[in-house]
Amino acid sequence: MSAGWNSSTRAPDAEDIASCVACGLCLPACPTFRLTGRETASPRGRIAAMRAVDEGRGEVDGSFRTMMDECLACRACETACPSGVPFGRMVEAARAQAEPGRAPRGRLGRRAGLVWLLPRRRAVMTAAWVAGLGAATRLDRALPRRHGTARPPVRLRELARPLPRAQGDQGPAAAVLAGCVVSVAYRPLLRATMRLVAASGHRARMTAPGGCCGALAMHHGHPEAAQTMARQRIAEVDGADVVVVNAAGCSAHMKTYGELLADDPRWAERAARVAARTRDVLELDLAAREGSVGAVAMHDACHHLNGQGIREQPRALLRAAGGEVRELADGGRCCGAAGLYGVTQPELSARLRRLKAEAIAATGAPVVAVANPGCAMQITAGLAEIGAAVRLAHPVELAG
């Protein structure tokens, strides 16, 4: 293995690396540094490793791969950084560099899911029905399950119910992303989203279920697959006045479509247009139904807080619906879901999951508001582990 970056795939930008002055102000915000105390598990340490490779002094070896894999990509360091270092896109590029050197078995498994399955809507929906059948017959309990992983709650009854593909007949055109995980495991959220978007004065039209935005592939070292899925979603929503997304990780990723496809002359303009029109559903001026939601613990998804600056909007929506919002201790800390983190880093993920579940239980609220499906699965598992009877719901479900 030679020093320097692999020229066949994207690499962290030299200007981005140079923007870090190694001041260390990011360290207290980094969940993995706080858990381990290791410099190699901090943003500063990871950027130092990237700088060494960029300058030809280091290699993309096993040690480098471990440093990047241990990162949650929660981007809390970006929020804390006074220099505006774009760490999120740097670690994604570093993972793309690290991917070819993985052991064949692990690499093939990741490619099967991220490169083959997710870009194929029919394959996603077929997998959902198989998972739903396994859950209904309890056959899934016989399957091996790695510690620290959470499975999406796929239910055959929900899959069999048709989704409202169009709602509202006046106002701007809103393309509502059905998505992959949300459309197979959290269908009540899609129904609530369509109701509230239409009630807010939009002509809501939902994309077909099973279509992935590409965030998982991008986060885990497969930018080409992410680009393929971006083109698919752009073709579905281009022309709408607003693109509405109800999963924090997906809305954050779709807002980067312009950057992701900037070098593609056929798609660059359309990608930039869709990115500019993408809104997380909580950024819309939603009309909450009148009622009394009661006490609600508020979990902030990392891709809301750090990726999009969304914090007050869900709180305002819940209060408008009669909710009493209760804040979590250390609420900005990642829950440990982070895409495939529960599979790749089960110990760190489990520690973060328990801390988040304990913080939620400590509020005494019977409900926790969660606006990202990965967080929802992770927190559900954490609450079960500590025996806390707390219901999860998206703010849109509680308000609409």
List the helices and strands and how they pair.
Layout: H1 14-18, H2 31-36, H3 43-54, H4 62-69, H5 76-80, H6 87-98, H7 104-117, H8 121-137, H9 156-160, E1 166-167, E2 173-176, H10 181-185, H11 187-199, E3 203-206, H12 215-219, H13 223-237, E4 242-245, H14 248-254, H15 257-260, H16 268-277, E5 278-280, E6 294-298, H17 302-305, H18 312-320, E7 323-327, H19 341-344, H20 346-362, E8 367-369, H21 373-386, E9 391-393, H22 395-399
Parallel strand pairs: 2-3, 2-4, 4-5, 6-7, 6-8, 8-9
Antiparallel strand pairs: 1-3
Given the C-alpha coordinates, what overall shape results?
globular
- Name the strands of the widest sheet in spatial order: 1-3-2-4-5
Derived structural class: alpha/beta
Main sheet properties: 5 strands, mixed
Low confidence ranges:
none
Q: In what range is the share of β-strand residues?
A: 5-15%
Share of helical residues: 40-55%
> Count of DSSP E strands?
9
Structurally, how many domains make up the residues? 3
Radius of gyration: 20 Å
Please give the count of helices: 22
End-to-end gap: 55 Å
**Average pLDDT value?**
94
Annotation keywords:
single chain, 400 residues, alpha/beta, Fumarate Reductase Iron-sulfur Protein, Chain B, domain 2, Rossmann fold, 3 domains, five-stranded mixed beta sheet, four-stranded parallel beta sheet, 22 helices, 9 strands
